[in-house]
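Wed. Picked up where I left off yesterday with Mur ligase domain-containing protein. The coffee machine is broken again, so keeping this brief.
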Amino acid sequence: MISSIHDFRKPFFIGVAGAGMSAIAQYLQGSGKAVSGSDRFFKPGEFNETRQKLEAEGIACFEQDGSGITPETDLVVVSTAVEDTVPEVQKAKQLNIPIIKRSELLALIAASKKTIAVGGTSGKSTTSAMLFDILEHAGLKPGIISGAGLVSLIKKGLIGNARVGESEWLVIEADESDGSIVQYKPEIGLLLNIDKDHKEIEVLMDVFATFKANSQRFVVNRSHPLAMRLSSDIKNDFSLQPDHPAGYTASNFTQDGLTIGFSVNNETDFHLNLLGRHNMENALAAIAVAAQIGVPLKVSAEALKKYEGIYRRNQVLGNKNGVWVIDDFAHNPVKCAAAISACQPVAPKVIAWFQPHGYGPTKFLRNDFVQEISAVLRASDEIWMSEIFYAGGTAVKDISANDLIGDLRAAGSNAFFIEDRNELLNAIRSHLTPNCVLLLMGARDPSLESFGKEIWENL
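Structure written out below (C-alpha cells, as returned):
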C-alpha cells in the first residue's frame, strides 16, 4: 500500500507528456526518485520536445507499448484519461504493481510539505506562477507543481511546470474538474472563483466547501459572490470591489497596451506586463496569500514587476503589420470572455478564434459560451471557431462548433465557422486591419502551441 512519498522509489507515469503528469514526474525526479514514463505521443523516430526535456532531466521515456514497465517498477501513476486497455496498465496488473491516480500522488506530495493549494475554475496556473515568483523573490525558496510552464523556467530549457524548492513551502494547483481538490489538506487554501465549467454550480459549491474544511487557513475572492459565501476570515480575503471590502483590496486599475497597473489598500502600486482585469484579480490573490506568510506588499510589487508570464496564458507572440498575435489557454465561457476583453484595450478590433474541446463539455456549456462571448464582443470584433477537438474515446458527436456560431450570429455577433483550422489564416486575411489583435484560444489539444507559431510565422 502506498501511503506516503517514501513508499516508492521507481514510479512510472502513463501519459507522462501531459501537463499535469509531467509536472509531478519532474518534481519527483528532482526529489531523488528514479522516474520513467510513456506517452501515446512518443513515436519511434519522431522528435518530441517534451520527451527531450524530460530525458534531459533524467526521466526515462518509452513508447506506450508496455516496454517501460519492469519488475523493478514499484508504482504506476495514471490520469483519469488512461483506460484499462493501455498496455502499461495491463502489465502493471500482471506484475501486481500498485496503480494510483495522479491526484492521489499529488495529495501525498502535498501532505509532505507546507502546501499552498490554489483552487477555482479560472486563473489557477497564472496565480500559482505569480505566487511562486513572489515567494522566490522574498527568499522563501518554494517548490511548484503547476499545470502550465513558467516562462522564467522555460527560458532555462525546462518544461517549466515544476520545480523542487529548498524549503517546506510548495505551491500546487488544486483541480476541481475531477473532484481531486477534496484530497488535499493544505496549510493555505486559496479560492479564486466559482463558475460553471465541468460541473454544475451546486456540485462545485460542495466540492469547494470540502476544500475549505480541509484547509488550515482559507483565502477567498470576495468580489465573486459564490466564492464569498465560503469566506472564513475577511482579513485574509481579497477584493476588487469597495462594496465588498477585504483584507486586501485592489483599486485604480489601468491598462496601457500590454501592461496593467493598480494599487492595493491604497498604499502600494503594482505594474505587470500582462493584459486584463482578470490578471489584476489573479495577482491580488497571490499578493494576499503571500501576505499571510509575512511577505510585505512592497516585496510582492517588486516580484510581479518582473513576472514573465506562463505558457499560453495571454502569451504575446508578436506584432506584424500592426496585427498583434496572442495565444491563450482559454477554454470555458468565462475564460474566453475574459481573454477577449483583455485584448480590447490593445486595438480597436479583436478577431478571436476558438477551438472547443470535447463534445460533452461543449454541449454542456453551449448556452454559456454564447451568452458570455456575445456579451463581451464589440461591434468591430469577430469570433471564429473551428471544429471541436476530439481526443478519442467513445464520445457521442452530437454537436458542432458551427452550432455555437449559429447561436452567436442569432445573438447579433460577427461569427464565422472555419471547420479546418489550417484554413483559418487564409480565411481571415481580408478581415485583418493594420491595428487589430488576432487572439487564438483553446486547450487540451497538444498541437495548439505549434498552431499558434504557424499562424505567427505565416501571418
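Quick read: Residues 315-458 form a domain with the Protein-Tyrosine Phosphatase; Chain A fold (CATH 3.90.190.20).
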